[in-house]
Amino acid sequence: MVELKIGQEVEMEYGGKAKVLKVIGSGGQGTVYLVEFNGMKWALKWYDINKIKKPKDFRNNIQNNINDGAPSNKFLWPRYLTKENADGTFGYLMELKPASFDSFVDILNTYKIVVDPVTGRATKQTVRFTSLYAMVTAVINIVNAFRQLHRAGKSYQDLNDGGFFINVDTGAVLVCDCDNIAPDGSNFGIGGKPGYMAPEIVRGVAKPNVQTDKYSLAVVLFKFLFRGDPMEGEKVVKDICLTESSELRHYGQNAVFVYDPNNASNRPVRGIHDNVIKFWRLYPDYIKEAFINSFTTGIMDPSKRIIENEWQKLFIRLRSEIIQCGCGRTNFTSMFIKENDKYRCPKCGMEFSTLGFSNRDYRMPLYIGCKFYQCEIDPDSDDFISVAGELVENKLKANVIGIKDCSEKTWKVKMPDGAFYDIGPGKGFPIWNGLEIDFGEIKAQI
Predict the structure, then answer these.
(1) Element (H, E) at 46
(2) For a tag on the chain, would you pick the N or C end, based on fewer CB atoms within 10 A?
(3) Would the pLDDT of 397 be above 90?
């Protein structure tokens, strides 16, 4: 590989030069550098073309992706190609990862290594989500990013834990390593990372496509939520050294989900898979059933794998079922005591009323600070980011609780006198037992 030197200038395809400032990191295909181009800082990925099977086709695909543009702002998309050198080497520019985002790998590890630029001393820094709300929002963002990508007719092809940067405060997500993305059905020699590849790729009977992306996405989501490998249980642990043949067996020919209801041969092992055992108990049944389907029926029949829109609906529901109790306990409704249409905290006994929506069969628990989103009150909306309503305490009257209209539309709300009133954006109304809200096509009531 031809490495770039600090201070070296790299010619761009359509004019100008990018000046190399320092090395950011390296991977299987090449090295990423910090560069300056047109007065701005960028990341330059420079390839070792000896590790690319079809470098000409690969480069043309990147150019096509640049021309098409990113599916959304959730992608660190290629922006500019460099000129191709006489020896065939080239690279491309992409935006830099914001400092507020951490890698998915660091989140799984719960820490990152930070090097002091002055002393060179390396220290561990904790990396954890600041709230359960932010964590579930991150999951929704990951799913939505791949929904957008697949709707654009492209597949990621090498989906793994190195493909994301996440803001642990907000749940915002950036998908990286987008140079392997190609039109569905096209492939430039990329297979994938062991443990994330669909069984049919492991067996060598298929190439990466949208269906294999769906399997890899399910693996990413499982690792994200349960902090373990969905196929690594007792059966895999017995193989002390995972050889290529045993990986083929455990992840391709005879893959068994650790919680397969019809096959207990690969259950998680206490002392080794404690995270999976712990978190499997915490999540509601509809989340567990989705993973069971993904890693049983979905293994045998790729067409039965859960599509991104279904995942998105499940996790939007999961986010709406978070309860933040005044005693400090924060968890999903599945970990609270259900009593008719209310929930009770098993720790302090505090009760939570719920809001039922006309378009779904589950109810949202109400507590100060809880939110519902535009997509939950408008059947034509896919907006899971914009807050439509929030439960707040009256600023002038302590202990008086109400819902604030955070949307841009006026709602009709039934007040205690039995009449409906218009509640406009920024306004609020009290919580009471006979409350009814008319959002338009969707209604809600306590």
Answers:
(1) strand 40-47
(2) N
(3) no
Model confidence band, residue 1 (pLDDT cutoffs 50, 70, 90): low
- Structure token pair of residue 252: 């391709």
Q: In this structure, what is the dihedral angle of CA atoms 70, 76, 82, 86, given to the nearest 10 degrees? A: -100
- C-beta of residue 344 within 8 angstroms of C-beta of residue 300: no
| β-bridge mates for residue 155, sequence order | 182
**Phi, psi angle pair for 47, to nearest 5°:** -90, 145
CA angle at 321 for the pair 318 and 326, rounded to the nearest 5°: 135
- H/E stretch holding 35 reads strand 30-37
What does the buried/exposed string (b/e) look like for 110-133 if buried means 16 or more CB atoms within 10 Å of the residue's CB?
A: eeeeeeeeeeeeeeeeebebebbb
Q: If you count them, how many residues does the chain have? A: 446
At residue 24, φ and ψ (nearest 5 deg) are -95, -45
Q: What is the DSSP letter of 57?
A: H
Instruction: Give the tens place of pLDDT for each residue, 122-136.
Output: 999 999 999 999 999
Q: Is 204 exposed, middle or buried (0-12, 13-18, 19+ CB in 10 A)?
A: exposed
Q: For residue 26, what pLDDT is reported?
A: 83
Cβ neighbours, 10 Å, residue 421: 12
Summary mean pLDDT of the chain:
93
User: Rounded to whole angstroms, how far apart are CA atoms 188 and 196?
Assistant: 18
Round to whole Å and give the CA distance between 234 and 271.
11
In the predicted structure, residue 395 carries a pLDDT above the cut 90: no
Four-CA torsion 242, 243, 249, 252, nearest 10 degrees? 90
Q: What single string gives the DSSP state of each residue in 80-101?
A: EEBPPPTTS--EEEEPPPPTT-
- What is the model's pLDDT at position 83? 96
Q: Which residues, including other chains, have CB under 8 Å from residue 21's CB and lie 6 or more apart?
A: 6, 33, 34, 35, 36, 41
Tell me which long-range contacts 282-286 makes (C-beta under 8 A, separation of at least 24). Answer: 282/331, 282/332, 282/334, 282/335, 283/225, 283/226, 283/318, 283/332, 283/334, 284/318, 284/321, 284/332, 284/333, 284/334, 285/334, 286/314, 286/317
DSSP assignment of 185-220: T--SS----TTTS-HHHHTTS----HHHHHHHHHHH
| Residue 178 CB neighbour total at 10 angstroms | 22
Q: What is the C-alpha separation between 142 and 167, in angstroms, rounded?
A: 12
Is residue 369 classed as helix, strand or coil in its secondary structure? coil
